[in-house]
Amino acid sequence: MARSAALTALLVFCLCVPAWAAPSGGQAEADALLRRAADIMVTGDLKGAVAVYLQVPAPGPEGDEGQFASSRMQAARLEFAAGDYPAALNVVDELLAVYPDNIEAVRFRASVTDAMLPQWRRLLRDTVKFVPHLLKGSVMTLMLVFFTILVSPLGGLVIALGRISNFRPLSRACWFVIWLFRGTPLLLQLFFIYYGLPAIGITLRPVPAALIGLGLNYSAYLAEIIRSGILSIDRGQMEAAEAMGMTYWQAMRRVIIPQTYRVILPPVGNEFIALIKDTALVSTIAMVELMRTADQLFNASFNVTVLGLAAVIYLAFTTVFTFAFEWLEARVGAYEQR
Amino acid sequence: MHALLELRDIVKSFGGHRAVDHVSLALAPGEKTVIIGPSGSGKSTLLRAINFLETIDSGTILFDGREVGYRTVKGKLVLDKPKHICKLRTQIGMVFQHFHLFPHMTVLGNAMEGPVTVLGAPMDEARKVALSMLEKVGMADFAARYPASLSGGQKQRVAIARALAMQPRLMLFDEPTSALDPELVGEVFATIKQLADEGMTMIIVTHNMGFAREIADRVVFMENGSLLAQGAPDEFFGEHCRDPRIQSFIDRIF
With the CA atoms of A317, A320, A326 and A328 taken in that order, what torsion angle do they form, in degrees rounded to the nearest 10? Predict the structure, then answer.
């Protein structure tokens, strides 16, 4: 009886002591395992480290989440780094089976499944995600482009006519404008208009500042192109127009300027394509257009696809211009064809 | 009857070179004057001075008996206001050696341009005038074509129609056939001859002596900016020409 009681006590002891001692004993063991795994990882034996990490047992219902979670996350990261995505998923799933709400595991699982997607699926998904934002930014880019295309040929024409005028002060003034805006970086001009003018009491909001900067800069460039176009027309054309009684301005409007179109169209097309890209500079004066949007998205996601998509959108715009100008050139110069 | 155009003592220099040296000339209505002379003798400069494409240094231009084109400011001749110059030019048609058609306009557009832009004529009226002038020079069938598709002779005939559409009182021809292939000269001359026969007053600068002889009421010979001799064509091209310089020039041409 006494012997059986002693056996029972032993049994109870044997059963109870581990149960009683398990939490502290298990934690110490887990700590040891984690340390060992870390030591093995340092030697470069990643597979070995994973094996040790996986020996960290799952705690009971009341147990501590920390060691188990960090062991599985470490193991999963190592598998992921080694390129074994399914293994990484298995490890993480093991963790999620016990702690479905572990936010770190949930996020990691998402990025692993993401990495397992085929390249084109990822590209497609990024495209769907980013393109609407980029297109929204493009609206501003296109607005800047169209405004400048509307304004700068007129400004350029006025400056060009002033430049070839016989009235010295006017011709000098136009020379000066061209000299100034062709001789300094557009970026600097934008800075000056946006940040500099407030110093003399003129404060502009970003959009007007950008429009003024682009308009003046491109007017100056187009002025020289238009002037070269006018100078390329045979003197006899002006003489013939004047000989029939036209005034200088009638001759310019009816005879000279219409003939410059086919001469100046190629370089003007060139300028307008440069303009599409130059609008990216206004992102520096607090304007959100295509380039700025791409920059923001890239900084938030570190996803290079954003930059590629922005490039594709710029290319689409410039391609449209390229073909539009080829079409125009063919039409405008048609009268020279036999 | 007074002269339609009178030039008195015209002088024009380019830098130090005297292109036109005290030239006087009078042109009765309906008279055809041909100016001949070697290259650089000032023929073209004189012709261009008549419609103010060149401004003269001194002298007087009378059109219809009135002094025109210049005012005297501090002893120097200054060209009149553009408005007045343009008004005068509408009455003087000019045909150039190199045509100077407007390449971006059709043949019809070229002929209509003056009436529409300068005279402010209504479109349909200008079209009527332009077409009748193109008809006159035999180019009405080409009305829709562009100048680039025409031969030199055709271009020059369109240029003549373009000048005629302004209904000028005087026509100036500046070497109208010098830029043409020889086989195309005839059609242009025929057109000018027809115009002459209709009574148009004209001054023609040309190197073509045969044409000068055929069309001219008077031939004027210029050399080194001076008007050396003028007279009826027979006096010039006859067997016994008075002036040895004219004789040697004509000999060189033929």
Answer: -100
Packing angle of the helix pair A305-332, A257-278 (nearest 10 deg): 180
CA B201 to CA B164: how far, in whole Å?
Answer: 12
- Judgement on whether residues A156 and A231 belong to the same structural domain of the protein: yes
| pLDDT tens digits, B69-87 | 999 888 889 999 999 999 9
Check whether residue A153 and residue A186 sit in a common domain.
yes
Range of the domain at A31: 2-116
Distance from CA of A202 to the nearest CA of B (A): 42
Q: B86: distance to nearest CA of chain A, Å? A: 4
Instruction: Clarify whether residues A61 and A132 are in a common domain.
Output: no
Of B70, B34, B27, B47, nearest to B169 by C-alpha is B27
Using CB atoms, pick whichever of A245, A248, A335 lies closest to residue B89.
A245
Distance of alpha carbon A177 from alpha carbon A220, whole angstroms? 7
B56 is written with which tokens?
């003269």
Q: Is residue B30 part of a domain?
A: no
**Same-domain status, A199 and A104:** no
Residue in B100, B106, B133, B145 to test binding to A, most A beta-carbons within 10 Å: B100
Query: Cα(A179)–Cα(A157) distance, rounded to whole angstroms?
Result: 16
Q: Which of B98, B146, B162 sits opposite A236 (nearest CB)?
A: B98
Using CA coordinates, name the residue in chain B closest to A258.
Answer: B104
Nearest one of A164, A172, A178 to A235, comparing CA atoms: A164
Residue A199: both structure tokens together: 């110093």
ipTM of the complex: 0.93
| Pair A209, A330 in one domain | yes
Nearest to B195 by CA among B233, B139, B157: B157
Q: What is the pLDDT of residues A289-302, one digit of tens each?
A: 999 999 999 999 88
Does residue B10 belong to any structural domain of this protein? Answer: no
Number of domain units in chain B: 1
Residues A36 and A97 in one domain: yes
Domain boundary among A116, A149, A181: A116
Pair A245, B90: CB distance under 8 Å: yes
Same domain, A129 and A12: no
Interface of A with B (CB under 8 A): 234, 236-237, 239-248, 250, 254-255, 258-259, 335-338
Instruction: Give the closest residue to A215 by CA, choosing from A282, A268, A148.
Output: A148
Contact at CB, B53 and A245, closer than 8 angstroms: no
When divided into structural domains, chain A yields a total of: 2
Cα(B207)–Cα(B196) distance, integer angstroms: 18
Taking the CA of residue B131 and the nearest CA in chain A, the distance in Å comes to 18
Instruction: Please tell me the predicted confidence (pLDDT) of residue A99.
Output: 86
List C-alpha distances in Å: A147 to A136, A175, A210: 17, 24, 11
**pLDDT (tens digit per residue) in B128-163:** 999 999 999 999 999 999 999 999 999 999 999 999
Asked whether residue B138 is assigned to any structural domain, the reply reads yes
Helices A85-98 and A103-116, axial angle in degrees (round to 10) = 150
CA of B108 to nearest chain A CA: how many angstroms apart?
Answer: 14
